[in-house]
Amino acid sequence: MYRIIQNRKIWLSISGTVVVLAILAIALWGLNLGIDFTGGSLLEVEFTENRPDTSVVTEAVGDLGLGSLVVQPVAEKGMILKFQDISEEKHQDVIKALNDLVGGKSALELNTSVAASGDATTTPVLEIDIDDLSKSSVVQLRFDSVGPSIGQELKGRSITAMIIVLIAIVSYIAWAFRKVSKPVASWKYGLSATIALFHDVIIVIGVFAVLGKFFGVEVNTAFVAAILTVLGYSVNDTIVVFDRVRENLPKSEDNFEETVNTSVNQTIQRSINTSVTTLLVLLAILFFGGVTIKSFVLALVIGIFIGTYSSIFLASPVLVVWEKLMKR
Predict the structure, then answer these.
(1) Among the three residues 98, 113, 146, which one is the final residue of a domain in this structure?
(2) What is the rounded CA–CA span in Å between residue 297 and residue 30?
(3) pLDDT at position 275 over 90
(4) Distances (CA, A) of 113 to 44, 65, 179, 217
């Protein structure tokens, strides 16, 4: 049997150190917010032939009054352009400029969506003959435009959603464990789970602060969805361990520390197996999936890995710490 709870000082020290580093990264660099939160436009295109240099593209569209322009190469022939919120007319001017740059015939528009000032519209897919497709030099894959006021609203709603989820989780766990009053009160199970969730979220956000600083990885509404998913996955693992503690307490002849350690050992294999199979699927999507979902999947990979760690090595040791403090 693994002495996980008995070595809790090691696990708590590791978690504390990583959380402090994550908080420092967030405080120093913050998150690289995408247009979902800051407002602006994002255009993703693919060149059917040779992709021009970013400097050449910047010069080609620089006179269109796009504001702060960022050009990023994607994969072998793709490119992402980010700039201020623009009208549909100027959007077409950008497409035309890119086609003129590479001598293309026309732009192929696929899945174009525009959300400006709160109104979302979808540009219909153009019906193009296969011969025209072969002559097109620029394929438009995506165009998103969000006004600044909408971006601020999304930011506020995202924070509110996370707070509501945390409160709901604490309340539900306290209610579910209401019949467990000794030696640790039921609400402390909820608080221990919340500490583990806070640990998971802060580390994921800290990692993305580092990625945003050094690799330009952006945070958007999909990232918020990933964080909420991580919260649900992590608390599920934690509840499995806590429920086994609740089952073992009435029939165990050991003290609380040994009972919790036994419960963790009984569930650790299940938690690791479930997480590994989930991570294998996510890693396949991360390496072979589309560019647009990579940051979302990366957040899930990090969150599920950290969540598995916290449910075993953090949430349960925190329960034992509560019990030790009550005896003093």
Answers:
(1) 146
(2) 20
(3) yes
(4) 12, 21, 52, 22
How far apart are the C-alpha atoms of 135 and 326, rounded to whole Å?
A: 76
Residue 255: enclosing H or E segment and its boundaries?
Answer: none
Distance CA 4, CA 313 (A): 7
321 in a structural domain: yes
Instruction: Decide if 99 contacts 75 (C-beta within 8 A).
Output: no
Give the residue from 113, 146, 179 where a domain finishes. 146
**How far, rounded to the nearest angstrom, does the alpha carbon of residue 25 sit from its chain's CA centroid?**
16
Return all residues near 65 (Cβ < 8 A) that are at least 6 apart: 90
Q: Which residue has the tokens 């034992």?
A: 320
Give the burial string for 260-296 (b: 16+ CB within 10 Å, else e).
Answer: bbbbbbbbbeebeebbeebbeebeebbeeeeebeebb
- C-alpha 138/C-alpha 46 separation (Å) is 6
Please name every residue paired with 143 in a beta bridge, in sequence order, or none if there are none.
Answer: 43
Peptide bond into 183 cis (omega under 30): yes
Q: Are strands 70-74 and 112-116 parallel, antiparallel or unpaired?
A: unpaired
Q: Tell me whether strands 119-123 and 112-116 are parallel, antiparallel or unpaired.
A: antiparallel
Average predicted confidence (pLDDT) for the chain: 82
Residue 311: CB partners within 8 Å, gap ≥ 6?
196, 234, 237, 238, 240, 241, 271
Q: What's the confidence (pLDDT) of residue 136?
A: 52
Task: Answer yes or no: do 250 and 318 share one domain.
Answer: yes
Please give the backbone phi and psi of residue 110, each rounded to the nearest 5 degrees, phi first.
-125, 130
Split into its structural domains, the chain has a count of 2
Asked if pLDDT for residue 66 goes beyond 50, the answer is yes
- HEC profile for 273-302? HHHHHHHHHHHHHHHHCCHHHHHHHHHHHH
- pLDDT of residue 59 exceeding 80, the answer is yes
Which residue bears the tokens 């709603």?
157
Which residue range(s) make up the domain with 136? 40-146
The Cα 84–Cα 94 span in angstroms is: 12
